[in-house]
Amino acid sequence: MFEFKFKGALKQSDFKSVTPPGSAPGTIVAPPDAREPVITTFAYGKSAFVEGTIEALDQLEELLSSWPVTWINVTGLGNVKRLKEIGKILNIHLLSLEDVVNQHQRPKVEDYDSNLFVVMKMLEIRDEVLCSEQLSLFIGDRFVVTFQADEGDCLEHIRERIRKGKNRIRSTGPDYLGYAILDAVVDAYFPVLEEYGERLEQLEDKILESPEKGLVAELHQIKRDLLILRRNIWPMREALNSLIRDSYPVITEDTRVYLRDCYDHAVRIIDLIENFRQIAADLMDVYLSMASNKMNEVMKVLTVISTIFIPPTFVAGVYGMNFNTAVSPWNMPELNSQFGYPMCLLIMTLITTCVILFLFSRGWLTSD
Q: What is the chain's percent helix, strand, coil content, to nearest 5?
């Protein structure tokens, strides 16, 4: 999966299109680091299923003609010729294949005559880093095709449901399988949000206990990650709303009811994201307030110390001028006094004591 690491600034190359500017529509250019496609299939009916990996594309046509529903999953986008052959067999438009290869598409729904094209974003957290991968979904009359760049997805439990055959997925058409995939992608956002909820709770405790400087960077990274989540789920909600509102030949009325439930999940995710973003903003304010209070306490201590020592410093400064008493009896006669030094210390002590009592009486020396 592609990784979003926000410890530094985003580079412009992170979202660079692989298709050269000015290329003809439908030009497909594989990413330079893309892997060779691996094609896995699930072909099933109500009473049986077949699972396997395809080497020769002729096997696809056999599966499509023999089974009510065939799920074709293509992992790896590094062979443009093979992708075009798959698209030709399944009658996938070249413009759609171009969007499949360019992995920074906005989640969307596009209706073609022979199939329905849906783009969505799968998200997960790996080693405390938010990772995103585009999943391209095609729903046809007898097939569902998914394209992804790397191994690993959130669809394994759908495969298990097909293998067990104990629910309605084996007795329904490809539109229901498409819904199940969409629902799995949307529901995979909840564990990610739970992770960020726990991080925010931990940050709140740390900020209230000791607002350290390093917490700001961690909090800022969470805010950036939440922004990425928001940018991905909002267009997905629009796409789901389009599937519910508009009429598509490959989507039945029965499946549209389930899509409404998936849409509700997307709305819940958006609400959670907005709540977490508000919490993150509030925590930033709390941090700034705590840091300001801590600075005020430091300034208060320094001010009190300065206030206490200003009077003795003044007295010591006066008697440190060393005027010559032999010239005039008014030139600091205390310097010739037998008890001049202890009297001076006593005066400074009394003044300091009076200042401390005054500050204490005003409540400036208490922590409250």
A: 55, 15, 30
Residue that wins the pLDDT comparison between 10 and 74: 74
Task: Say what the pLDDT of residue 32 is.
Answer: 79
Is the distance from CB of 196 to CB of 225 less than 8 angstroms? yes
**pLDDT at res. 303:** 84
CA 97, CA 21: separation in Å to the nearest integer? 17
118 closest CA partner among 173, 183, 61, 67: 183
Read off the pLDDT band of 296 (50, 70, 90). confident
Q: Please provide the average confidence, as pLDDT, over all residues in the chain.
A: 86
pLDDT given at position 200: 93
Tokens 């990996």: give the residue: 53
Largest Cα separation within the chain, whole Å, is 125
Mean pLDDT of 326-344: 79
Rounded to whole angstroms, the Cα distance separating 79 from 298 reads: 64
Q: Using CA atoms, how far apart are residues 149 and 100, in angstroms rounded to an integer?
A: 9
Closest CA to 233 of 168, 293, 200, 187: 187
Looking at residue 120, its pLDDT comes to: 93
Contact 122, 132 (CB under 8 A): yes
What is the enclosing helix (H) or strand (E) of 174? helix 174-187
Q: For residue 20, how many other CB atoms are within 10 A of its CB? A: 8
Total residues belonging to the chain: 368
Query: How far apart are the C-alpha atoms of 237 and 121, rounded to whole Å?
Result: 12
